[in-house]
Amino acid sequence: MTAARTDPDLLYIGTYTESIYLVRMDRRSGELLRVGSVNAGANPSFLSIHPNSRVLYAVNEIEQSGMVSAFAIERGTGALTRLNQQPSGGGAPCYVSVDRSGRAALVANYAGGSVALLPIDPNGALAPAHVVQHTGKGPTPERQEAPHAHCIIPDPSNRYALAADLGADRVFVYRLDLEGKGLRQVENGDAVMLPGAGPRHLAFHPTLPLVFVANELDSTVATLRFDAGRGTLTLIDARATVPAGWTGTNYPADIHVAANGRTLYVSNRGHNSIAVFSVTGEGALALEQTVSTEGDWPRNFTLDPTGRWLLVANQRSDSVVVFGRDPENGRLTATRQRIALPSPVCVRFA
Fold first, then answer.
1. Tens digit of each residue's pLDDT (9 = 90 or more) over 229-253
2. Strands 10-15 and 19-25, bridge-based pairing
């Protein structure tokens, strides 16, 4: 598959409805305009786009029998046409990514506590899943009574896949076997997180051998060192994602690193903010800013490809809000730009 000439100003919004919404962004003003939607089945919540920009994948976050759907992206218009659907291999799939070669989709099943690799056919359709069951639990009984896989992403070399498990307090390391179409756990490779941390989402630093982890249950961001030669993770540090002295209930969700590696962002649900961290040349973090998301429950956010804008999906207040971003220091400023959409969960630029 060759790359599609999709409009770079188009973005897709996954939701807890039955629709994926297509939105166009004005890069000069930050204005958002809804231009379409597609019926994508129940809870097409989390999205990922193939490296060739011609296929979009969505999990159908169903508690008992989750699915993953594939959609062809029409050149120019960005319209979606269903290709096929496959079982995710577990309940409540909440995350999907695509390996860097575009040959496999990787899925985290929250309720089932498993991860899956679904081979991708040459036309972008999905083949049946290879499933790996997690084990383990943590000290928070209402959330950590069993494993709850929450994220799985390929590493920059595309030789490994890392999976954050909120229930097991662990980041699992798998060898990404694209020829054998499976995942093989690396012996002694996992990062054992602090008890009760609840690791949720992961982000690699673009140049340093570091992985940052948004910990949902203790409101921290952790720094892990990744040895790409051996496939092993080591916990280095953890920093609070809310201001010192704040005592409310909070659950960090999404995490992203700026392309230049100098700024890290984490969304706080409860505090309802984006935490902005500076990143030193050695990878040390310092909390520089917390900005209100001007809505409730910022489940997901994204940086636009130019790095000038940051868009936040406020799930409970049915809004996607746009912030201006200083490309030098990474700090955020409010704009008047927003769009109303029902229960937005995930934002992806085409």
1. 999 999 999 999 999 999 999 999 9
2. antiparallel
